[in-house]
Amino acid sequence: MEEDLRRLSQGLDTLNGLVAGLEDRLRVSLREDTTKMITTLLGSPRRPDSTVGFGVIPEGGPETLDGGEGFPVLGELVGRVTEVKDELRVKSNMLDEIHGMVMGHDGQLKRLLEADTARPVLTGGTQSLLEELLDARLAGVKAEILDGFERRLSGLENHCDERIGQVQQQCEKEHLNGQEQMQLSLDGRETGLRKELGDLQAQIQGLTLTDNCCGQVNSLSQRVLLLEESVKGLTESQRQLQVTLTEQTHHMETQLDARLLDIEGRLNTSDRGKGGLEGFDGHGAGTLDGFKTLLDDKLKNLEERLFVAVEELSNATAPALLEGHVVPALETEIDNVRRRVEADLDGLQKQLTDLELLCTSACSPAPNPEVELIQTEMEECKDVEKKVSSRLDTHSDMLDHLNRTLQGLLTQLAQEDQEGSLQGEITLLKINVNSVNRTLKGLRDSVHFFAREIGHANSTWEEREHRLATQVKGITELVGRQSNLLGAGERRLIQMKAELQSLRRRLAGEIQGCRSTALGVQQEVMGVESRVSQVEGRCGSLSELADELERIRSELESHSDTYLAQINNTLASHGQQLSQLKEGLQECANKTDPDSHRGDQ
């Protein structure tokens, strides 16, 4: 406040000096201008009008006849008057601006004096009011910070929900496309098998049969029907596996969505168990990822072994089948696969038990819903393993049944060969074996296709799980950063409160000092008002002088108009006289020309 008052007083002093200087310069310039105008008006002699007769011609050449140099003082006087008028206008504008500035400073000083006189002395009640005001302002700032934090969190939640919805829609779309492709492939394989079986039946019916082979043909047709039923059973089992796979995927999606919602709720409600939850999630996710990769590797190994066995069976020729060398190898391979599957399942069971012990030991202080969810997922994984093992057992049983039927056919063919059966029956058996090979090739292709589809589904599921894990990790990191920012904001609020209290104490001291300086300011303001009144009086005298100058200008303009009219009249008379002189000279010249011609003659 003291510095502001000091600056105002300095500004008033400078304004007073400027006003005084302007008054002096205006006074001097006006005196000089008036003296010059009066001397020019009184000192310039008026020239008489030029009277031109027949023999009188004004002095000077033709250039002086336009009146440009007849009254040289009049043009200078008019220009000088306009210059003085412009200067007076500019200086009057400057005086108006200075007057406005002085009035503005006067109003500011009056407001300061009124505020100083109306301000009460700080007491205990006013201090309490100031404290309440500061507390209210701090509470408002804190509420604004918290509102901004909540808005950012809500925006992040909406963004996460949108991303999760997009991922779910993409997974559902890919799953539906995979189901449609699998259904189309199954339908195509089934129609192909039915067509091949119909062709076989047509070939069997078209063959010429003898009396000895009627019973054998009937038995072969029954065996073909049994093979067709076994193929139907395989297709039904594949469809059931597809249905169970879809159910498991939907179930896992719902569980994952529930877990994500639970994690979001826990993050929004509490911040205390964040570290333990992150540690547990990271450890559990790592173990589950390892378990999934191990299970995928084992399933891939089993599929490769099954494909090798089917290829060996399909690549085998008819004599080898007749000799019975490939089918026992297939049985031994199936036994080896079964033993390996049992060993792998035992190892997986051990890993699951270790995982359960690890989860129970690491998550004992953690809340129960997460542990229960993980246990339910583990139980569901066990159920899926049991279902897969049961399906493998059913497939192995069906393969055993097929081996037994083929073995029976081979033994029957051997007996018929020993008894001298006909060549047509052997060809018929070859045709049947070739058809079985084709059906097995079709089954191998379908198994390959299912394996690719399952691998694609597993890869998409792993990508989705990894994406969701990264999103959850980003959300937790963002929440941590926001909590740190909130703590920094609270510390800043405490610091601002301390600064405001110190500022309040400083203001109390400065207000006490302002009271002492207010009286001096009031005296200076009174002096400024007196000076302003003096300036206004002088400005009134300047306005009177401007009126007098305007009157002088009007008189000069009237004189100049009369002078210009006289000059125009004299110029017109001179022009007429010149024209008359030219005509006289022309006549004289015409008269002198004949006289000169006569003298010459």
From TrEMBL:
Gene3D superfamilies hit by this protein: 1.10.287.1490
Protein name: Elastin microfibril interfacer 3
